[in-house]
Structure formats: C-alpha cells, structure tokens
Amino acid sequence: MRVGVVDVGTNSVRVLVADGVDGSLADVERDLVITRLGEGVDRDRRLGAGPLRRTVAAVAGYTERARARDAGVIRIIATSAVRDATNRQDFIEAVRRATGLEPVLLTGDQEAQLGFLGATMDAPAPAPYLVVDIGGGSTELVRGSEEAEKFISLDVGSVRLTERHIATDPPTADEISSVAADADAHLEDAVRALGEDSANTMLGLAGTITTVAAIALGLQDYDRAAIHHARLTRAQIADVRSRLTAMTSEQRRALPAMPKGREDVIVAGAVILERVMHRFAFDECLVSETDILDGVALDVLRAPDPRAR
Predict the structure, then answer these.
(1) What domains are defined for the chain?
(2) According to the per-residue pLDDT averaged within each range, which of 144-158, 166-180, 189-203 is highest?
(3) Does the pLDDT of residue 71 top 60, yes or no?
(4) pLDDT at position 147
(5) Edge to edge, what strands does the sheet with 24-34 contain?
(6) Lowest CB count within 10 Å: 26, 72, 83, 127, which one?
(7) 269 secondary structure, DSSP code
(8) Cα dihedral: 163, 155, 192, 206 (round 10)
(9) For the residues 158-164, what does the mean pLDDT come to?
(10) Could you give the angle at which helices 207-216 and 234-245 cross, rounded to 10 degrees?
(11) pTM confidence score
(12) HSE of 305, CA atoms in CB hemisphere, 13 A
C-alpha cells in the first residue's frame, strides 16, 4: 500500500509519500517548506492569521501531491504549535475545509513514540537508544530498544527558545547562556522521566540536527544520503554552533546547506542539542533522516484508517 503523511510542525510542513515494502518503507517523494506556524505561540498562545494561512496552503498543496501520487491513505498530523494554541480549532477546521481530511493532533507522548519508531527503523548501531527530536516548539526524548519504553516531551524547541531569549543578530553571549539555562532546567525533567540508565546510542533527528550535520560535513548542498547515519562528535557540534552564533541571520541564510527559514532559529536548536549531549553524557550523536514522518507511515501501514483518504 502507498501512504502519504503530512507533518505540521512549529517551524515547517513536510510530506512523505512511501510504499510499504516487507514491513519497511520505500520513498516515493519527500519535501519540506518552512511556514513558521508557531510564530508567537509561546507568547500569545494563539496561531496568528498569517502563519495559519501559509501553513494551511502548504498542507493543502502537499495533500494534493500525495493524492496525485496515488496514496491510498493520507494522514495529516499536527504537533507542538497546534497543541499549545488556544485557537487550535481554527487550524483543524481550516485544514478540514482545504483537504477534506481530519488532521490528527498528536499528544507529546504520541509524538515521542512515533519519532522513535521512525528513527530506529534502520539504525546501524546497538540498542538501547536515546532518540532526541528537536523541533521548533518542543523536544522529544525517548529511551528504548525494540520499542519506546520511557519518553517525555519538553517545551523547548528552536523557535520557542529563540523567541524567549534571542533578540539581537547575531546573538549575544548572555542570550546564548539564557537559552542553555532554559534547556538545562527542562532537561532535569527528562532525567527524572527517563532515569539515569545509560543508552548505547544517541539518535538525533529533525531539522536542527540534520542542518548541523550538513554544515559539519561541509556539504555544498543538502544531501540526505550523506547526512543519514552520519556520526557527529560533541566537538564538531560545538564548532558548528560557535560558527553559527558568530554569524548574522543573513550570513547563515547564505550557507549552502541551510534551509530557507531556518537561519534565525538554528542557533537555539544547536544549543539544545549541545545541552542534551552534555546532560546525558554522550560524546557522539548518530544522525537520522528517518523520523516521525516515517514512524507515522509505518503506523498507518500496520493499521490503516479508511477514513483518512
């Protein structure tokens, strides 16, 4: 069966169309556009009219592309920004009108478990894993081996912490320290939820980590194959974060592998990554290009919903 998944995040809208092949996935199409749905949500707890309009248009376009690719089932999922917004029903109704489909608002726990499923589907490293998904509005941490065993969703993400703490361009040392302190405080909740048991492998996924990987690898264009299962050391990540911190948003935007629209929030995301590695004592992060999109696709293939067409 061919399945389509549209993922509505705080910073971006993504699509995956894939075929189920012997319990795994064969990609037909992947794409991403940054719409910044979560702009101002941390402050106002509402989805703005402009971000909502941009995002619904992207969702509608990707849904049509999935239909054009003959996806038998299409699932639209929404995460942190929609969860946190008091006017989330405006988003749900607008997507329903634009696509004819009912979007699924994931809980933080569901987001964590589906991200784990996608990230570990072909991981070439030993379990147990600590899967770290740094999004725009939240960061999910999941510990497990064959399946997610312990998990937590934290209200720290690249967009959220940029809006809270970074007002200058490039950011000041004090602003970076504030981002780190905010991340550290939330990570104590993660330690309590996940325990002190060590995992063998840290798996990092989502746009912050894959972009840091692209820069660390010196890629002249975004190369998914080169990034998938690349290994980044703490020293490499610290070097990239330091370089990005010294640049303006305009300078970051000019980097060959920087997705348009991520340049102003990548520094906060990289700081979160550093703090996770520090708190959980990992010297290396295995980067995964498979993530919650793949996890949802696998979930649909196992138990397709006939209403999601």
Answers:
(1) 2-107+293-302 (3.30.420.40), 123-289 (3.30.420.150)
(2) 166-180
(3) yes
(4) 86
(5) 24-34, 12-21, 2-8, 73-78, 104-105
(6) 26
(7) H
(8) -90
(9) 93
(10) 90
(11) 0.89
(12) 17
Pick the closest to residue 130 from 251, 268, 284 (CA basis). 284
Q: Are 2 and 28 in contact (CB under 8 A)?
A: yes
> Which pLDDT score, from 0 to 100, does residue 39 have?
87
Cβ of 281: how many Cβ atoms within 10 Å? 10
Cα–Cα distances (Å) from 50 to 86, 162, 286, 307, in that order, read 16, 19, 36, 30
- Cα–Cα distance between 17 and 230 in angstroms, integer? 24
Question: Do the Cβ atoms of 128 and 150 come closer than 8 Å?
Answer: no
pLDDT band of residue 218 (cuts 50, 70, 90) is very high
DSSP-based three-state secondary structure for 33: strand
Judge residue 14's burial from the number of C-beta atoms within 10 Å of its C-beta, 0-12 exposed, 13-18 middle, 19 or more buried.
buried
Q: Which amino acid is at 301?
A: L
pLDDT at 306: 46
Encode burial over 164-197: b for 16+ CB neighbours within 10 A, e otherwise. Answer: bbbeeebbeeebbebbbebbeebbeebeeebeee
Secondary structure of 209-266 in the HEC alphabet? HHHHHHHHCCCCCCCHHHHCCCEEEHHHHHHHHHHHHCCCHHHHHCCCCCCCCCCCCH
**Residue 203 token pair:** 């798996």
Relative to beta strand 139-144, strand 24-34 is unpaired
Condensed to tens digits (0 to 9), the pLDDT of residues 222-233 reads 899 999 999 999
User: What does the DSSP 8-state code read for residue 136?
Assistant: S
DSSP 3-state helix, strand, coil percentages of the chain (rounded to 5)?
45, 20, 35
Q: What is the DSSP string of 51-94?
A: HHHHHHHHHHHHHHHHHHTT-SEEEEEE-HHHHH-TTHHHHHHH
Asked if pLDDT for residue 144 goes beyond 60, the answer is yes
Q: How confident is the model at residue 13 (pLDDT cuts 50, 70, 90)?
A: very high
In tens, the pLDDT along 98-110 reads 999 999 999 888 9
